[in-house]
Amino acid sequence: MSSTTKKPANVSLNITLMKSIYFFLFLPFLLFPQTKTTELPQLSISENHRFLVSADNEPFFWLGDTAWLLFSKLSREEANLYLDDRLAKGYNVIQVMVLHSLDVKNYYGDTALVDSNISLPLTVAGSEFENKAEYDFWDHVDYIIDLAEQKGLYMALVPVWGTNFNNGAISLEDAKFYAKWVSDRYKEKSNIIWLNGGDTKGNENLENWNAMGTIYKENNPDKLVTFHPFGRMKSSTWFHNEDWLDFNMFQSGHRRYDQEDPEFGYGQDNYKYVNDDFKLKPLKPTIDGEPAYESIPQGLHDPSEPFWTADDVRRYAYWSVFAGGFGFTYGHNAVMQMHKPGDKSPAYGAREFWTEALNADGANQMQYLKKLMLSKPILDRVPDQQLLVGKEGRKYDYQIATRGKDYAFIYTYNGKDIKVRMGVIVGEKINASWYNPRNGEYSFIGTFANIGTKTFDPPGSSKDGNDWILVLEQLK
C-alpha cells in the first residue's frame, strides 16, 4: 500500500461516509460544516531590521517553547494537550524537529523515510486517521501543524537535525531534494518558520546548509528562514550575509561560567551575542534560540551537577531581550524531549515527565516577559546602558537597560541597587515602579523629577534570583 516518490505527495482529504449508525454521528458535521480557521498573518522583518512584525506592521514578540520531539513522541491527543497549554501560557512559537534521525518513527509506529533515505519520504495514499493503512508519518506532522495554526501558534521547524549530516551520511543532492520536497509540502501553510541546521556548526557541511537555506527561501519566499547553531555559537558567524537568512539565531547553551570552553563564546553572558550581531551590516534581528533549559544539568551531560532553575531561565530571557533580542525561546529538559512513562533512557538526567513539567515555574513565568515587552511601543525600543550610572557589573551582578522614547526598563538579577541617569527618556517627571518577573505584578515606587541621578533599591535582600525590573515611564 505504501508508495515512494521523488516528487511532492498529494495528501488526499477525502471523507468517507460511514454506514448505519456512523452516518448519523457524522451527519451534523455534514449539514453544518466547520469553517476553516483564518490563516495566521505572515511574519516579516520590521523596517529598522531589529524586530518581527505581522500584518499591518503589528509587533510580534516571539515567545518560543522548545518541543524538539513533538512530532515523534506525542499522539494526536497529547499534541492537543501540549499546544493548548503553551497557548494558555502566552507562547506563540513552537520549535520542533521534523527528522530527529533518519530512522525516526512516530507515536503510531510510522517511519518518515524509506531505508533512512532522506530523498525517499515514505508517504501513502490518503490521510484517514481511522484507516491505519492510509495514515503515515507525514499525515501526523500535517495534523499537528494544522492544529497549531487553528490555535494561532507558529511552528519553527528544523527539517532535519544537523547530526544526521555527520560523516557524509546525506549527499548534497539528497539534501537539496528533501529541502524542496518539505518546503513544497508546507508552502501553503502560513504558520511555518524554517530553522535550517539544528545544533550544528555552520562550517561543517557548509555547502549543504547554504543549498538548503536557499531552497527554503526561494521556494517559500513568504516564510522566515534562520539557522539553529551549535552551543555557544551564532548563525551570523557563517551566514549573516546570505540572502536566505532573514534573522540570526544563537544558542547560548547550557554551561555555566567555570565550564566554558575558551574556544567557544560567551556562555551565560548571552547578551554579548546580541551585541555582536548588532554590530554587523546589514542589520538583522537576533534571538537566543536555545539558552539553558530549565531542569537540565549545568554543563548538560552530568546529572550529578546542579540543575538550571527558573531563576536562571529568567536571567537569560531578560538579558538577551533587553540587549535587543526580538524575543526569546524557553526550554525545559523534560518537555523538549517529551519524556514520558516507559522511556528507557531519558536524556540529560530528565527527572520529570513532560506533562508535569508543563507547569514548571520558568514555563509559567515567561508570559510575564512577553506582557512587559508588549505593554509599551516595542518597535523603537533600543538597548541603552547609558541609563546606568557607574559600573554595570559583571557576571550575575550585570545590570542591563532598554528604553523607548518615554519609558525604560532596567533588569537586575540579584536585587542590588540600580543607579539611574535621569533625563534619558522624555518628560519632566517620571513614574517609577518595580515589575516582578515571577508573577507579573507592579509595585509603584513614586514620582520623581527627571533630572540628575537617582538610586533605586529593589525589594528584598540582595541575592542571586531576587531579580526585578525597574520600570520608568513619563508622567503624562
From TrEMBL:
<dbReference type="InterPro" id="IPR017853">
    <property type="entry name" value="GH"/>
</dbReference>
<dbReference type="InterPro" id="IPR025277">
    <property type="entry name" value="Apiosidase-like_cat_dom"/>
</dbReference>
<feature type="domain" description="Putative collagen-binding">
    <location>
        <begin position="382"/>
        <end position="473"/>
    </location>
</feature>
<feature type="domain" description="Apiosidase-like catalytic">
    <location>
        <begin position="46"/>
        <end position="379"/>
    </location>
</feature>
<dbReference type="Pfam" id="PF13204">
    <property type="entry name" value="Apiosidase"/>
</dbReference>
<dbReference type="Pfam" id="PF12904">
    <property type="entry name" value="Collagen_bind_2"/>
</dbReference>
<dbReference type="InterPro" id="IPR024749">
    <property type="entry name" value="Collagen-bd_put"/>
</dbReference>
<protein>
    <submittedName>
        <fullName>Collagen-binding domain of a collagenase</fullName>
    </submittedName>
</protein>
